[in-house]
Amino acid sequence: MAKDYAVVSKAIVDKIGGIDNIASVTHCMTRLRFVLKDEKKADEAAVKAIDGVMGVVVQGGQFQVIIGNHVGTAYQEVMKLGNFGEESQIARGEKKEPLTLKKIGNNILDAIVGTMSPLIPPIIGASMLKLVVMLLQMAGVLPAESDTYIILNSIGDAAFYFLPIMVAASAAKKFKTNVYLAMAIAGVLLYPDFRTLMESVTVGDTAAHFLGIPIASVKYTHTVIPAFCMTWVLSYIERAIDKITPAVTKNFLKPMLIILVAAPIAILIIGPLGITIGEGISAFIYFIQSKIGFLAVGIMGAIWPLLVITGMHRVFTPTILQTISDTGMEGTVMPSEIGANLSLGGVSLAVALKTKNSELRQVALAAASSALIAGTTEPALYGVAVRLKRPLIASLITGFVCGCLAGIAGLASRSMVSPSVLTVIQFIDPANPATSIAWIIGITILSIVLSFVLTLVIGFEDIPEEESV
To answer: How does DSSP assign 305-334, residue by residue?
Structure first.
């Protein structure tokens, strides 16, 4: 269920001493950063208990509240509560926000993260089902020509086939435009007759025409960027048409004009442009990997936990999906996550073993289970690694080493599931299963053991028993 960040932000402000206790407030990719007039008035435990708050960090003279990917929304709601100058006036709609390069960049990142985050559950569910079907087929249990195989594979593939419609619906909420109009326009790109027309010519050719204008022949199934870009454009088209249509005709004329304007723009311009952008991003990643080889995977493994901390890891979702759609697998970002994710489980186990704080031990054990079994690393990051600092170093080193090994092994994912002990099967190569399984098992064990040992060697400053975790 979506959280009401107006309620969440109001609760946070109340628990840190009220609006009058706030000297200033800013935000990064995941945190609200308050400078308080009197830190003693802030109830840290009460803030942590608020539904929608992932944690609290007090350091550098700031009271930092971890929100996650929706921190921008929470920040805007905080701004509406008090008088923080121009920022508050902008949040309340009393003044127009100045446009800067930094603001444009932040808006793009926020839009991508906000659009893709709600789509992660169906993508993961469908990915896991496709993996199971692939393994059953490889084992000879489920012949590829059987009806059961076809049906199960269709169930797993449907979320990816219709991904443009899902992206359009999610992006429409982010861009505050009509969800169903966005879905209808994205649906045009997947409509059977349109797909047949596009597939009747060579990809990249311009044999098909609309009103005499050539149409680039591209495939839109399994794509993200075309629907995302089109929905952004739709938000402006809808507002423009709303202004020019008479009130008495809005029920029928407005939606007709919106579709009539937006759909051809999607077919002629935005769709092909989105495909080109996606292919360009994928080509750039392949270019980097071709220049530095396995080091590209190692570097990604080292910085992945830092990307998760900032929330920027979601930016790679469209690229991963696009690459899998184009080539059937992704061999840079996903393999790097094996060491990055499992190392956080390893450092959490080490902390649980070494700490004398019973509450921290419980947090560390829960975080280790989350990272190792589910591939969900935020509890280990915020509750253990970032809080204790030195375990994060152990994780980054392990991520680099195991990322390099994954790159040397040539591991590549056939789906998009956060790697864990249970989901590393996504890296099995159907063409060479024995060798890939050996590498997977070795890297999985090394990720846990190396991070565990490094944490014990590097050590950490334990939290006294009387301090709350």
So the answer is: HHHHHHTGGGGGHHHHHHHHHHHS-B-SHH
